[in-house]
Amino acid sequence: MSGAAGQQAVEGARPAQPEAPSDSALGGAFAYRGGQLHAEQVPLARIAEQVGTPCHVYAGGAMQATYRALAAALEGIGPPTTICYAVKANPHLAVIRGFAELGAGADVVSEGELRRALAAGVPPGRIVFAGVGKTEAEMAFALETGILQLNAESIDELKLLDAVAGRLGRSAPVALRVNPDVDARTHAKISTGKVGNKFGIDIDQVPATLELLRGLPNLRLDGLAVHIGSQLVHAEPYEAAFGRLAELAREVIGQGWALRHLDLGGGMGIPYGPAAEGGAARLPLADYVAAARRTVGRLGLPLVFEPGRYLVGNAGLLLARVIYVKQGRSKRFVILDAAMNDLIRPTLYDAWHEIVPLAEPAPDARYEPADVVGPVCESGDIFAPARPLPPLAPGDVIAILSTGAYGATMSSTYNSRLPAPEVMVRGSDSAVIKQRPDHAALMALDAVPPWLAETGGAD
Ligand SMILES: *Cc1c(COP(=O)(O)O)cnc(C)c1O
What we know:
This protein is of the alpha/beta class and about 450 residues long. The chain is about 25% helix and about 25% strand.
């Protein structure tokens, strides 16, 4: 792989269009125009100048175009479909709002996410609550809100939900999240549908679970759900999981349960980088649709989908400035002002992210390997080892691409670094959608107990 391939990915990007996204790592959102990298119509150098770095930038128009394209493709399955955007991928209110405007529901995994979805205008009747560890308080809040369904993942959870619903005098709409025991062929830390993962009820325990359900009067079984993992780029694991789900649904319906819908989860994978790094593929959507049509599609039940990454991943990037370039004896280090606290995917998942300068490199620029690192005091604070990059100097701004999903949301303030601001563009408009807080605001959450002497303050 050479950095030039990365450049082509940028040049190959097209403006957002209401059609299936291309195989570019950029999802059609970012491109060089006149030698400068743009987000939709906005020069990123201007954002870096006005907002400072590090800074997350989202192409809001591209997110909506991707949503429309996905919704259109899923219609090809046959039954009515609902897309519940998986909020955890990027929980910013403006991101959720952009999808809600187009009719999306939301898939949430905590009370905080549920509150965000509601605040962004998602109707309660289109909200699904997933997750292995819902608390009693979260269940009560979800039931009082009147959401579409809670996806239950264990017998203990069903019993507690029945008790909470009984106390509130409500009937709780539930789906059983089934672990279909398929290998999603993705990174171990984001694989969720194989026996031995903490997720879902093992498929062979479903009959016993249904027996138990008959004795839980405050639960109404509305559906069955699967979610086998994240960043899946092959349709085969989906076909296997959906096939098992369809078979199970037939049995369950045969036993007299009136299922209202099936929830097929999310996990649709996106391209992150060049083929040589195993990152060029997007889940072939046509194959995914065909797999769903051949299996669950035959049942005719309405279908719920929970895509997160697919809708937002390629539509975000992280701007960072080069602080130093250190030429060691055997290695070049490019030290950025962004760090693992701003984007932890490389550290956590060995994730590959394309890195490009904002100023388009000359056609004959020499690409040489560099370790691209942040300033945090951890050896794991590295964005890319031995990455071929054009010449870079202190002060240059670069973009780390495809950070729209599991980027800002997984950030922390480790090393007492301030959270990076977030900017959204649409066409030629741009807006700061999250300010960078100051150090006083961060410290204001700390309290020093009364038995320690006052410092006299340093404000
Ligand atoms: C995380 C998650 C999703 C979204 O996963 P993506 O890979 O971002 O599409 C969907 N459903 C459930 C239950 C999840 O936990």
